[in-house]
Structure to design on (256 residues):
């Protein structure tokens, strides 16, 4: 196994000539659980979009050492069209075809079974034939988490997965991520620093620049030096954990 899944080098991204990321460097390692923190507007989502090839960087490079289909992505549910008339099972299975529904309707048997297995493991067997438009926020996130697992990813990317979910699912979700982290790297953007401090292994502070911190224990001084505006959180179980919070490259290089 390569010692890095993804290498981001000197990545700069702008919107309307306004620099949002400036010479960002970040490596993602196998089985890392990387928490992305930083102030509002600091560029966290932009970093993820650049990783997914959804925004074009001005400079720098992103090298994948795994096939792109081995990157799972859980979008924010406000990016999902709830009017689309498709069942939970079909949505989950569509993860196999990169979100395209064409092949889903061929109902590949092995894929169907795997989708059912993921749904069962997520504890949502009862809603598998429901249309996605009928689901609550928490149910929707569970469904999309299943979908992001269809290709058995080596890297799972989640952008604020706790935004629209109920408290019960929030803790369930993080326990699930902890379990998944035994077999895949996780990159998690979250505003819930208390939770982050408990689950992540390493931290990246994103505020125009990116500072990787190879531990989940971070001091206020370090946060200040990373230019991450902060609010101190100490987690009960890890008394020394202190986290900060909030409230290109001309081409993508993909090496397999
Ligand atoms: N499509 C866009 N067009 C123009 N500006 C954008 C666009 N998307 C984001 N921005 C701007 O880029 C900056 C970084 O935004 P981004 O969403 O990456 O930050 P963030 O760290 O994820 O913020 P938050 O914590 O609020 O989600 C912000 O100033 C934002 O207004």
């Amino acid at each position: 196994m390569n010692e890095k899944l993804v290498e981001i080098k000197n990545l700069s991204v702008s919107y309307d000539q306004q620099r949002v990321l400036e010479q960002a460097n970040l490596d993602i390692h196998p089985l890392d659980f990387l928490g992305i923190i930083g102030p509002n507007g600091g560029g966290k989502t932009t970093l993820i979009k650049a990783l997914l090839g959804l925004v074009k960087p001005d400079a720098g490079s992103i090298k994948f050492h795994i096939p792109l289909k081995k990157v799972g992505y859980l979008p924010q549910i406000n990016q999902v069209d709830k009017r689309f008339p498709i069942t939970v099972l079909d949505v989950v299975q569509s993860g196999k075809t990169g979100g395209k529904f064409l092949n889903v309707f061929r109902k590949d048997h092995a894929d169907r079974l795997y989708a059912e297995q993921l749904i069962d493991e997520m504890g949502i067997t009862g809603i598998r034939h429901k249309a996605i438009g009928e689901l609550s926020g928490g149910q929707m996130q569970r469904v999309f988490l299943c979908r992001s697992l269809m290709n058995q990813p080596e890297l799972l990317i989640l952008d604020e997965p706790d935004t629209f979910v109920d408290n019960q699912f929030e803790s369930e979700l993080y326990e699930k991520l902890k379990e998944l982290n035994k077999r895949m790297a996780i990159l998690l953007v979250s505003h819930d620093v208390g939770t982050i401090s408990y689950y992540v292994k390493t931290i990246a502070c994103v505020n125009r620049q990116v500072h990787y911190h190879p531990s989940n224990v971070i001091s206020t001084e370090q946060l200040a030096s990373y230019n991450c505006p902060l609010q101190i959180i100490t987690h009960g179980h890890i008394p020394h954990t202190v986290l900060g919070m909030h409230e290109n490259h001309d081409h993508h290089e993909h090496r397999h």
Summary: The mean pLDDT is 82.
